[in-house]
Amino acid sequence: MKVLLHTCCAPCLIYPLERLKAQGYEVEGFFYNPNIHPFNEYKNRKQAVIDYSRIAQVNVVYPEYEPAEFFQAVNSKEKNPGRCRLCWQLRLEKTAQLAKERKFDLFSTTLLVSPYQDQGVIKNTGSDISAQEGVNFYYEDFRPGFRKAHEEARIQGIYCQNYCGCIYSEIERCRQSARP
Question: What domains sit in the chain, N to C, each tagged with a CATH number?
Answer without folding.
Answer: 2-178 (3.40.50.620)
